[in-house]
Amino acid sequence: MMSATSTLALTHFVTLADSFDKDKVTPGVLGFIVFAVIGGAVWLLMKSMNKHMRKVDFEENPEDGQAATTAPAAAAPKPKTS
User: Rounded distance, CA 7 to CA 14, Å?
Assistant: First the structure.
């Protein structure tokens, strides 16, 4: 069962929906601001990802048929004995 306030609210929403011209409704300024914020966030994420990817030091292992042409990067340090 619907109360009087919910019935009144629904009738106001229906009249507001009928007053809009469906051919003239556009996203407006708010739509542009949201789109610009999302675009800026994606740009910042891509910039951060590129910065982190430059730090990655990846050396690919040679395939089975190829000989290793590079020496190991660094030998393990020897433990100190006192």
Answer: 11
Query: Strand ranges (DSSP E) for the chain?
Result: none
If you search the block for the tokens 């990817």, which residue do you land on?
Answer: 53
Computed over its alpha carbons, how large is the radius of gyration of the chain?
32
**Contacts within 8 Å (CB) and 24+ apart, 66-75:** none
The residues, any chain, with a CB within 8 Å of residue 79's CB and separated by 6 or more, are: none
Which pLDDT tens digit goes with each residue over 9-25? 666 655 656 676 777 87
Question: Rounded to two decimals, what is the model's pTM?
Answer: 0.44
Query: Half-sphere exposure of 77 toward its Cβ, with a 13 Å CA cutoff?
Result: 3
Q: What pLDDT, on a 0 to 100 scale, did the predictor assign at position 23?
A: 79
> For residue 29, what pLDDT band results from cuts at 50, 70 and 90?
very high
